[in-house]
Amino acid sequence: MEDIILSRRSVRRFQEKPLEDHHLSDILEAARWAPSWGNLQCCELVVVKQNTIKSELAAMLSAKNPATKCMANAPLVFAVCGTPQKSGYYKGKQVTRYEHWFLYDLGLVSQNICLKAWELGIGSVIVGSFDHKKAEKLLKVPEGYELVSLIPVGYPDHKPPTPKRKEMNDFVHFDTFS
Ligand SMILES: Cc1cc2nc3c(=O)[nH]c(=O)nc-3n(C[C@H](O)[C@H](O)[C@H](O)COP(=O)(O)O)c2cc1C
């Protein structure tokens, strides 16, 4: 079997086929089991299937964003939301240098979504560049929550090329950084 981590690619062109319900359940189950700060599980997912909503989301990406078309054409889009002041906070106080650990947690959920999808033969692309405020309004994200990324998913209609990665020597340090 091919390695899911090595073979996964961002997919931005999908077949018209809707996502099978059991595939959606498997992906959501993978999302549920992502690690999180203190197991606080600050992530909330909106599963968007309605074509009108997907098209309106697509209009909130810049025309140059390579994911703009697929946002409207994908059979399903996950909107990855979270509560900003939970992870990394204790009794309402920030307890580490970083105030945005929730982004880390949401990243882990997103990775679980993308890898499980790929294992099932489903492509995905994480999209972080869009008008967040407008999209939150459209999706009725309540006060106290933030929408961070959109992940269109669907059965791929092509095999994307493999982008380059740094060599190990270029980012791995042993024992000390320098
Ligand atoms: C946080 C984040 C935000 C991203 N935002 C976008 C985006 O707005 N549009 C897009 O087409 N791809 C986006 N991507 C996908 C990256 O471009 C892609 O992962 C990268 O080029 C490596 O390609 P690969 O995923 O096929 O290995 C994003 C990826 C991440 C992790």
> Can you tell me the CATH class?
Alpha Beta
- As for the CATH topology, it is NADH Oxidase
Summarize the helix and strand pattern as letters.
HHEHHEEEHEHE
Structural class determined from secondary elements = alpha+beta
Give an overview in words.
The chain is α+β, with helices and mostly antiparallel strands. The protein has one domain (4-156): NADH Oxidase (3-Layer(aba) Sandwich). 31% of the residues lie in helices and 16% in strands. It is built from 6 helices and 6 strands; from the N terminus they run ααβααβββαβαβ. It has helices at 4-7, 21-32, 51-58, 68-73, 101-119, 132-138, and strands spanning 43-48, 76-82, 89-90, 93-94, 123-124, 146-154. The strands form 2 sheets. It has a 4-stranded antiparallel beta sheet, sandwiched between helices. Helix 2 (21-32) runs antiparallel to helix 5 (101-119). The protein starts with a helix and ends in a 24-residue tail after the last strand.
Brief digest:
The protein is an alpha+beta fold and 178 residues long. The protein is built from six helices and six strands.
